[in-house]
Amino acid sequence: MAQIATVAAITGTGKAFAVNEQGVSRELKAGDVLQKGETIRTVGDARVELLMDDGRLMAVAPN
């Protein structure tokens, strides 16, 4: 799979997960790579900041 972003930070008291096309999830932490086809799911008030491959920073809000 192709990498599309790197997790720059996760803030808040919740957790964040990457979910692939088959529905398999893994808990994210700073430095993890997000692959093409994965989506982010947050629990609680977790906010995820992604460093995209083109250098842009993208924030994923809670829920």
What does this molecule look like?
With 63 residues, the protein is mostly beta strands. 0% of the residues lie in helices and 56% in strands. The chain contains no helices and seven strands. It has strands at 3-11, 15-19, 25-27, 33-35, 39-43, 47-52, 57-60. It has a four-stranded antiparallel beta sheet with strand order 4-1-6-7, with no helix packed on it. Strand 6 and strand 7 (57-60) form a beta hairpin. The chain is globular, with a radius of gyration of 11 Å. It starts with a strand and ends with a strand.
- In what order do the strands lie side by side in the largest sheet? 4-1-6-7
Distance between the termini: 26 Å
Order of helices and strands: EEEEEEE
How many alpha or pi helices?
Answer: 0
Beta-strand percentage? Answer: over 45%
Mean of all residue-level pLDDT scores = 92
Main β-sheet description: 4 strands, antiparallel
Low-confidence stretches: none
Radius of gyration: 11 Å
Q: What is the 3D shape?
A: globular
Computed structural class: mainly beta
The portion of residues assigned to helices is: under 10%
